[in-house]
Amino acid sequence: MTDTTLVDTLICAASEAWRDDGEVLATGIGIVPRLAASLAKLTCNPDLMMTDSEAWLVAEPVPIGPRGDYRLRREGHMGFARIFDNVWSGKRHAMVGPTQVDRYGQGNISMIGADHRRPKVQMLGVRGFPGNSINHANSFFVPNHSPKSFVAGEVDMVASVGYNPARLARGWRLEDVDVRLIITNLCVMDFGGPDRQMRLRSLHPGVTAEQVQQATGFPVHIPADAPTTPAPTPAQLELLARLDPHGLRASVLGA
Fold first, then answer.
1. N or C: which end of the chain has fewer CB atoms below 10 A?
2. Exposed e or buried b per residue across 118-128, where buried means at least 16 C-beta atoms within 10 angstroms of its C-beta
3. Are 22 and 45 in contact (CB under 8 A)?
4. What is the residue-level pLDDT of the chain in tens, covering all 255 positions?
């Protein structure tokens, strides 16, 4: 598959994360997650709420890139107060791009290195990830599936809640944690394996289960009948062309 063909497959697979959510605020951080959320609103879940990434709730997804003469179809104001109301009430599902993920589903967007005072690489900091992961569902997009991204031990900085009983907040249960889909350049995964083990849900065309396991720093539950990730339909490709008129998604996997 070419990078362009593969990224379209990833976007369509990622859009399934919101299929059964009903009326929640869908947030996609980055090109692929944002296009996936937009595609979900136009196909499998029209009840999704979506913003223009500034302060307005919109009736239809806003295309990515320069807007030119595009005119927003505004449905109402969506300032920080309303955003937080959705976050704290659990009526939000975000798809984010952690640099590291561990076997518990804990994500790291903060820094790389064992010494937090002198990190090898300084990234974003934890930002709003701790509170978001506690309050609402999250899915992950990881464009480069490797042992550096799916690490053997715990992530270098735990920036989000996962299925780690040793790090649960007081009064919390594992059932309160909600990490949904994980979309990578090799496969789709979730935490539906035994004892919340990361589980393979589908393999992208041309990828084997052995490749997924070799690229993951911990054991993955691999069902005997893992299907192939569906290819985009002509209707989905038409919508993606409308949502990404400048073709920005073509650079995601080649970067």
1. C
2. eeeeebeebee
3. yes
4. 555 689 999 999 999 999 999 999 999 999 999 999 999 999 999 999 999 888 888 999 999 988 877 788 888 888 888 888 888 899 999 999 999 999 999 999 999 998 888 989 998 888 888 888 999 999 999 999 999 999 999 999 999 999 999 998 888 899 999 999 999 999 999 999 999 999 999 999 999 999 999 999 999 999 999 999 999 999 999 999 999 999 999 999 875
- Write the single-letter amino acid at 177: V
Q: What is the three-state SS of 59-93?
A: CCCCCCCCCCCCCCCEEEECCHHHHHHHHHHCCEE
Q: Provide the terminal-to-terminal Cα distance of the chain, rounded to the nearest Å.
A: 16
Would you state the structure tokens that stand for residue 205, as one six-digit string? 């065309």
CB within 8 Å of 73: residues ≥ 6 apart: 58, 59, 60
Beta strands in the chain (DSSP E): 25-28, 56-58, 74-77, 92-96, 100-101, 107-108, 111-112, 121-122, 137-142, 179-184, 187-190, 199-203
The residue among 22, 10, 144 whose CA lies nearest residue 93 is 22
Residue in the structure block whose two tokens are 């035994």: 194
Give the predicted TM-score (pTM) of the model: 0.93
* Residue appearing with tokens 């704290």: 88
Q: Which of 242, 191, 171, 231 is nearest to 11 (CA)?
A: 231
- H-helix or E-strand containing 145? none
d(CA 211, CA 142): 16
